[in-house]
Amino acid sequence: RALESGSITMLSGSPGDGKTFWLLQSLIGWRNEGVRAVVCMLEKPRSWHLTRVLALLAKQPNLTSAEWVKKHPREKNEWLAQYESHIEAIGESIATANQVGESLEAIGRWIDAEADESDIVVVDPISLADAGDKRWIADTKFITGCIRACERTGVRIVLVTHPNATKGGPVSLSSLMGGVTYQ
């Protein structure tokens, strides 16, 4: 029942599996369909994500290769000019850790604020959030806050994580609530 109104969905995969590409492609599709979606990217700078948005819009995966771009600056600039307004619009839906904060508490506040204006709120990856010394308490407060935002607004929350971000195995909603000790 992923992405049902008021749901929290975990998207898990190993680094490099394409989770962020999938999210960016989904963000493009959601915006095209009039779905109000926002994403907080905790890895990589905003420019990195916008380069991938350009590659997706232009259907040119080579645009993600610095070596290829260096050899083909004209092509890159042509695609950039063609999709500039789309990239700017999509870019407005992408926040970073620099804007939101890196703590689980700050990310929770961002989710709560965005829930009032958005249909879908995504954090990629939640496993990078700083929960402090008492992770089990921070995790419980975070998940409780997410549940309240879902109940209050019907927002759909997507939390991206890596499958082995915890000692003892894969991440799940229960492990975010103190069931597993984090590394």
Global shape: globular
Radius of gyration: 17 Å
Helix-strand sequence: EHEHHHEHHEHE
Strand residue percentage: 5-15%
Q: How many DSSP helices?
A: 7
The spatial strand order of the largest sheet comes to: 1-5-4-2-3
Structural class: alpha/beta
- Beta-strand segment tally: 5
Indicate the percent of residues in helices.
Answer: 40-55%
First-last Cα distance: 30 Å
Mean pLDDT: 89
Give me a quick take on this structure:
This protein is of the alpha/beta class.
Show the helix and strand layout.
Blueprint: E1 8-12, H1 19-32, E2 37-41, H2 46-58, H3 66-71, H4 73-91, E3 94-96, H5 97-100, H6 104-115, E4 120-124, H7 135-153, E5 156-161
Parallel strand pairs: 1-5, 2-3, 2-4, 4-5
Helix pairs in contact: 1-2, 2-4, 6-7
Give a description of the structure.
The protein is α/β, with parallel strands linked by helices and 183 residues long. The protein is 48% helix and 13% strand. A 5-stranded parallel sheet has the order 1-5-4-2-3, sandwiched between helices. α1 (19-32) crosses α2 (46-58), α2 packs across α4 (73-91) and α6 (104-115) packs parallel to α7. Residues 175-183 have low confidence and may be disordered.
Question: What labels would you give this structure?
Answer:
single chain; 183 residues; alpha/beta; five-stranded parallel sheet; 48% helix; globular; disordered C terminus
